């Protein structure tokens, strides 16, 4: 999902974050690349325009260009705008299925993944939300589609309305409603017929079914691989039958992702779920923040900026990041890290957020680092000379004894600290040799 877009944007922001100071021209040039990357990902032009305008306005302000880490600030602004674009203002958190039996109408073109999605969602409602679900296929033109839903229902342990040959869609909808009430179901889902293209007969039928069922949710299933077409289909369906949410399927493919990005802005309809494969568990809720994170592929620099801003440690974090990027990590860096940890509340919270450092956090945890330990380690480092801190390889037995005694500790404890620094330095070297992609993968482990 979003791989090529993510690579492109990653390149732009890598350059930006590496630069110390940013001029407005730097930002404008970067935004030109962002614009092209979004267009190439098949995001619709008006959406791209308003996105770039919003980001540029915020990113060229003095607060950004004069800040200590302007590149990271720009990443953060882009990130926040992406979320706004993906989520909109009033995205509902959950499906409105509180009054049983709550009808959910599933609509979409043939081949979009509607039947599969219906079953996936039923499974989710059953397993996560402990709902009793009844499924009904209304695709009277395609007996195979009705049979497919019955098979999927058996597979996931969800009831399907028995098929009555010759019955029309409206009659099936009425029977499903009745059966759902009588049978004490929490939810009933109507899998409407799809066509290859939008046509009037299809829309008429869906409208009639809608009027019978009075659905709490009308979810439109669209194929995410079809890009702008998916957005057009959504616009038409919404105009004709009114949809409450969108499910984008095939987001596991290498589609360009533009549909996901334009959907909300163009149609005003929230994406509720994304399909990530053919299996019954391959359905995720659409989480704008997570998706924005994936698109930007910047580890969690954003979260880091937020936290660092709060504690005004940007400058130091930035300096450290630069050294880390070069694979450098001496006792000064370790002390900086330890102090940062004290301020920011713990190892995991900060290290886990930096690209490539998830593993280090684990190493440190394994080494038994806690707050008391951090204080002792800082004391040890403070007991070293400037030269020793810059180059811990200098520490031979006599120096070690002096340092440990100076901090009121024994050499064994100092050795532990040295080992930790060495491990971290090794990790930094490895991380700096890897490309950004590999770094991220490592961070996500
Ligand atoms: P319908 O005609 O809209 O009901 O489409 P189906 O539910 O029959 O799906 C058509 C094909 O797309 C099937 O082979 C599904 O397994 C596949 N499919 C559905 N959703 C996804 C998805 O999210 N990812 C992938 N890779 N395949 C999917």
TrEMBL record:
It is a peripheral membrane protein. Pfam families: SRP54, SRP54_N, SRP_SPB. One of its GO terms (cellular component) is plasma membrane. It catalyses: GTP + H2O = GDP + phosphate + H(+). GO terms for molecular function: 7S RNA binding; GTP binding; GTPase activity. GO terms for biological process: SRP-dependent cotranslational protein targeting to membrane. The keyword Ligase does not apply. Its EC number is 3.6.5.4. Residues 270-283 form the SRP54-type proteins GTP-binding domain. It is found in: Cell inner membrane; Cytoplasm. It is an enzyme of class 3 (hydrolase). It comes from the Bacteria. InterPro entries: AAA+_ATPase (IPR003593), P-loop_NTPase (IPR027417), Signal_recog_part_SRP54_M_sf (IPR036891), Signal_recog_particl_SRP54_hlx (IPR013822), Signal_recog_particle_SRP54_M (IPR004125), SRP (IPR004780), SRP54 (IPR022941), SRP54_GTPase_dom (IPR000897). GTP binds at residues 108-115, 191-195, 249-252. Keywords: Cytoplasm, GTP-binding, Hydrolase, Nucleotide-binding, Ribonucleoprotein, RNA-binding, Signal recognition particle. NCBIfam families: ffh. Involved in targeting and insertion of nascent membrane proteins into the cytoplasmic membrane. Binds to the hydrophobic signal sequence of the ribosome-nascent chain (RNC) as it emerges from the ribosomes. The SRP-RNC complex is then targeted to the cytoplasmic membrane where it interacts with the SRP receptor FtsY. Interaction with FtsY leads to the transfer of the RNC complex to the Sec translocase for insertion into the membrane, the hydrolysis of GTP by both Ffh and FtsY, and the dissociation of the SRP-FtsY complex into the individual components. Belongs to the GTP-binding SRP family. SRP54 subfamily. Composed of three domains: the N-terminal N domain, which is responsible for interactions with the ribosome, the central G domain, which binds GTP, and the C-terminal M domain, which binds the RNA and the signal sequence of the RNC. PANTHER family: SIGNAL RECOGNITION PARTICLE 54K PROTEIN SRP54 (PTHR11564), SIGNAL RECOGNITION PARTICLE SUBUNIT SRP54 (PTHR11564:SF5). This is Signal recognition particle protein.
């Amino acid at each position: 999902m979003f791989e090529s877009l993510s690579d492109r944007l990653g390149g732009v922001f890598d350059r930006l974050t590496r630069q110390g100071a940013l001029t407005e021209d730097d930002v404008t040039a970067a935004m030109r690349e962002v614009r092209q990357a979004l267009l190439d990902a098949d995001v619709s032009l008006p959406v791209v325009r308003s996105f770039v305008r919003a980001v540029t306005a915020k990113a060229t302000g003095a607060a950004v260009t004069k800040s200590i880490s302007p590149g990271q600030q720009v990443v953060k602004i882009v990130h926040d705008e992406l979320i706004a674009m993906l989520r909109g203002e009033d995205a509902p958190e959950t499906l409105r299925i509180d009054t049983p039996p709550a009808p959910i109408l599933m609509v979409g073109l043939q081949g979009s993944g509607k039947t599969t999605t219906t079953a996936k969602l039923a499974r989710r409602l059953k397993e996560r939300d402990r709902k009793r679900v009844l499924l009904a296929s209304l695709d009277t033109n395609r007996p195979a589609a009705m049979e497919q839903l019955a098979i999927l229902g058996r597979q996931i342990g969800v009831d399907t309305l028995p098929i009555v040959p010759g019955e029309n869609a409206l009659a099936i909808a009425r029977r499903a409603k009745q059966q759902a009430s009588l049978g004490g179901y929490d939810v009933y889902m109507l899998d409407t017929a799809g066509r290859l293209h939008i046509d009037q007969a299809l829309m008429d039928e869906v409208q009639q079914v809608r009027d019978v069922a009075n659905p709490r949710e009308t979810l439109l299933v669209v194929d995410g691989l079809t890009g702008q077409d998916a957005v057009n289909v959504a616009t038409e369906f919404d105009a004709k039958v009114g949809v409450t949410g969108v499910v984008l399927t095939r987001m596991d493919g290498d589609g360009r992702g533009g549909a996901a990005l334009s959907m909300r802005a163009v149609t005003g309809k929230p994406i509720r779920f994304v399909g990530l494969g053919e299996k019954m568990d391959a359905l995720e809720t659409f989480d704008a923040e997570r998706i924005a994170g994936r698109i930007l592929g910047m580890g969690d620099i954003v979260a880091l900026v937020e936290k660092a801003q709060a504690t005004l440690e940007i400058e130091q974090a930035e300096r450290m990041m630069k050294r880390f990027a070069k694979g450098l990590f001496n006792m000064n860096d370790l002390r900086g890290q330890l102090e940062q940890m004290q301020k920011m509340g713990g190892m995991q919270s900060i290290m886990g957020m930096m690209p490539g450092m998830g593993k280090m956090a684990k190493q440190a945890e394994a080494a038994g680092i806690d707050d008391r330990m951090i204080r002792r380690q800082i004391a040890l480092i403070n007991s070293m000379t400037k030269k020793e801190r810059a180059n811990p390889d200098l520490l031979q037995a006599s120096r070690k004894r002096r340092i440990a005694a100076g901090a009121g500790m024994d050499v064994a404890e100092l050795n532990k600290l040295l080992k930790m620094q060495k491990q971290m330095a090794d990790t930094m070297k490895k991380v700096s040799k890897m490309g950004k992609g590999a770094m991220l993968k490592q961070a996500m482990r």
